[in-house]
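Supplementary notes for students who missed Thursday's class. We covered one full example, reproduced here. Read the sequence, then the structure, then the short commentary at the end.
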Amino acid sequence: FFYPVLTGFLPIAIASSFSILAYHNVRHIVRRQLPIVRRKLDQQMTAMVLMRVIAFVCLASPYSGYRIYVTNFPTSRSMPMAYAIGRLIQAILTSVTMINYMISFYLFTMFSSRFRRQMKFVLVKKCWQQWKYWCCCINNLIEPENNIETHNIQMESEENI
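Structure (token representation):
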């Protein structure tokens, strides 16, 4: 029950159904009296959600299918080659599933110009300026020496000794 339903196809079905509902909602947004900018932002957000759900379905389905297969047809440790192949497939599919948690940033960067602008603003204007302040903080101030006369008097007294 755990692999096939809770971690398998239930999250995929819920994400897919809500993304289809969001897409349907944005299709009907043209009929409402909303500003054009708001409509564009809603369409862009829906496109981002759709891309995210498509990636989620593509990356989560193979592992869920494999876990259902392994649960129904287990491989015995007495056959080491088949067991090793099964473990290799499981490791590869686990890695593909873990990509699911990292891919959002790249998808949003590819498909959203607004996200790219915000990312550029944060990285260049905020982070880069802060980094320059921390790492490259060179004191370029010229300070006058007020003790020039005192320094000259001390040097003369040392020469006399």
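Commentary. The mean pLDDT is 77. The radius of gyration is 31 Å. If anything here is unclear, bring it to office hours.
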